[in-house]
Amino acid sequence: MKQAPTTLTYFVDEMDCANCVKKVEAATSKLPGATVLRSNFTTQILEVTLDEQVTPRATLEKNLKDMGYGPNLQAENGQQPRTQNQKPATDRSDEHEKNAWHQTRQGKLVIQSGILLGMAYLLGFLLPEFARWFYIAATLLGVWPLLKKAVASAKLGDPFSINMLVSVAALSALLIGAEAEGAVVVFFFAIGELLEGVAAGKARQSIKKLAALAPKTATVVHEGHTHEVPVSSLQVGQVVQVSPGGRIPSDGTLLEGESSIDDSPVTGESIPVHKSPGSTVFAGSINLEAVIRVRVDKTSRDNTIARIIKMVEEAEESRAPTARFIDRFSRYYTPVVVLVSLLTVLIPPLFLGGAWMDWIYRGISILLIGCPCALVLSTPAAITSGIASGARRGLLIKGGAALEALAGIKTVAFDKTGTLTENRPRVTDILPLKVTQDQALQRAASVEQGSSHPLAKALLEKAKTLSLLPAQNARALQGRGVSALIEGVQHSVTSPRHAAEQTDLTEVQSQIQDLEHQGKTVVVLLQENTPLALFAIRDEPRADAREALLQLQSMGIQTTMLTGDNHRTGQAIGQQLGIQVQSELLPEDKLSHIRALKQQGGVAMVGDGINDAPALAESTVGIAMGGGTEVALETADAALLRNQTRDVPALIQLSRSTMRNIQQNIVFALGLKAVFLVTTLMGYTNLWMAILADTGATLLVTANALRLLRK
User: Fold this and answer.
1) Euclidean distance between the first and the last CA atom of the chain, given in angstroms as a whole number
2) Is 415 a catalytic residue?
3) Which residue among 518, 538, 558 closes a domain?
4) pLDDT (tens digit, 9 = 90+) per residue, 273-326?
5) Catalytic residue among 94, 415, 647, 694, which?
6) d(C-alpha 215, C-alpha 529), whole Å
7) In this structure, what are the phi and psi dihedrals at residue 605, rounded to the nearest 5 degrees?
8) How far apart are CA 325 and CA 338, in angstroms?
9) Nearest-angstrom CA–CA distance, 288 and 291
10) Cβ(54)–Cβ(33) under 8 Å?
11) Which of 9, 639, 57, 551 is CA-nearest to residue 308?
């Protein structure tokens, strides 16, 4: 009976760079019965399905070890491994995170090679006959680990690896008597690998700082008593107590107490938010003012922070089209470089009377110039830095493909409710008729107290500074409003249509129509059959909505609103914000509009509701507001955790910055190599310049990508 393939998840020591992932993937994919599911140099995770009847896992692990990588089995078919008792991958970290650069293996190699080089240089003045032996020692010390990896890669079908190019160049330099150049070749290559490891470590730290936001312990309330437990043990439904200054241990709902909550560690929102019973709170947020009690709604594995980290890790595994192109390009580029180097060595001496030593020297230089380190690093380094930078600012991007697509967006389509507006109706106008404004508001709110209707909440919010009057016999008037006895007199808050059935509204009809033309919902406060006041209520635009739309327009991006709301309300909000409006749309109508807009170029859809999910999925890039439904968040390609409209242009600007960074990196990588290739063939540059061309390009690309982390 054929055994089903096993899914193995490894934490791979030393797989901490883009080129490392490329080599590991290539070697693993060539094994019969093996398929790479995911790999990530940020988390150092390799997940592979393996038919162990064809290739035992021991073979896979041996191949990785031969290439210089340390596989540590973390999970088998999603469960703890049956053969090993390993720490979870989330508890592991790369040596560049735990140690200073000089304490890492690569750092020690750089220091040791540097000492030998320094001694050789000094001996060149004092005892020249001994200097060459120190250069040889420095070369062999640096080339040995590279040569082992190169041979292992060649056995696995990758003879044109970067390690092979550098090893051949360094050893060839020794053979032609260029010991100093050979030593410097491996020294600078070691520096380049060290810089790449440090850069990857910084990106990892940027993400892992998120995991440190949630506290390790929580104070659970049980039968009137409190006790401390690990956050990992919290269950949905438990109640936890958070003191002022403490961090909220899990996503939940505020049950008791009111306090200002600092959500900035999670969402990036700089201003503390006042929250009261019924409000949603996030793991990692800081309680600022009073003791609160929170019902746990999500476990530690499923809270906001855990989901952010998971999304970012998945995003880093998702490669941008440019990255995939560079990978394909490098497969052909490296063999071509070897061929050009070989032809440079052979053709001039054999057919043009050139000196062998001169052209061997130039051939070695071309091998070094052609090393694709910087080119391979150019895209993933920028993508990883861009995604990490966005996550710190509450801009979650679910992959390199989404990040790249955002740069080419021509149109942004917005849902209205909860996206351009707050999804929180507010009282915008009070027109008192027989009483003062405060008296009208007090009586209307007194009638509405206890109601959960959005219009009732708007009136109660407006009247929160007033003392409400006792209300008796309160009852809902189905589809029409609410009534109650206030001071023994019948009062009702109702629609103009229902009020007109009980009293004459002719004198205020024009005012009602003006308010309704502004997209506002009008309610009438009646005392018996006498109208006391009119109230206008509307879901108002977000404070930053107009600013965000202006920013998008200044970036050359068209905007449109797609809403299921009525035409009058949609147009009123659209005119206020200066945006084109398509109203009274069903989910399938929104989908059709997105398809039509895509014919004009890339479209981003911004929404927060279940009804937005089809349009989010159909758009080039779907963007979910952070306060939206889980369906919207799961369907979208990006999420705005701060729940602010102005983060839409910020997201697109981050994408454009990242793509500019990638373009700059590719120009640095290929431009330097092209210049030095020509000058080397013409004899103007030597092996020293070739070394600087390779390491210099890697250094430029790495430093340029890290600039994104400062944004």
Assistant:
1) 56
2) yes
3) 538
4) 778 899 888 888 888 878 999 999 988 888 877 776 665 565 455 555 666 666
5) 415
6) 58
7) -110, 130
8) 21
9) 9
10) yes
11) 639
d(C-alpha 543, C-alpha 520), whole Å: 18
CA distance 667 to 450: 65
pTM for the full predicted model? 0.64
DSSP 519: T
Q: Which of 92, 113, 145 is the last residue of a domain?
A: 92
Number of H helices, E strands in the chain: 24, 26
Q: Render pLDDT for 682-692 as a digit per residue (tens, 0 to 9).
A: 877 777 677 77
With a cut of 80, say whether residue 118 has pLDDT above it.
yes
Residues 13 and 113 in one domain: no
Letter for the amino acid at 636? A
Cα–Cα distance, 208 to 326 (Å, whole number): 28
Report the greatest alpha carbon distance in the chain. 116
Together in a domain, 431 and 504: yes
Q: Which residue has the tokens 């209300």?
A: 471
Q: Answer for the pair 207, 241: CB distance below 8 angstroms, yes or no.
A: no
Distance (Å, rounded) from C-alpha 332 to C-alpha 666?
A: 16
Give the strand order in the sheet containing 273-275.
273-275, 259-262, 286-287
Residue with tokens 């750092």: 107
Q: Which residue shows structure tokens 């009123």?
A: 572
110 and 178 belong to one structural domain: yes
Both 325 and 188 in one domain: the answer is yes
Question: Which residue type sits at 102?
Answer: H
Count of structural domains, the chain: 5
Question: pLDDT of 316-330, one tens digit each?
Answer: 555 556 666 666 676
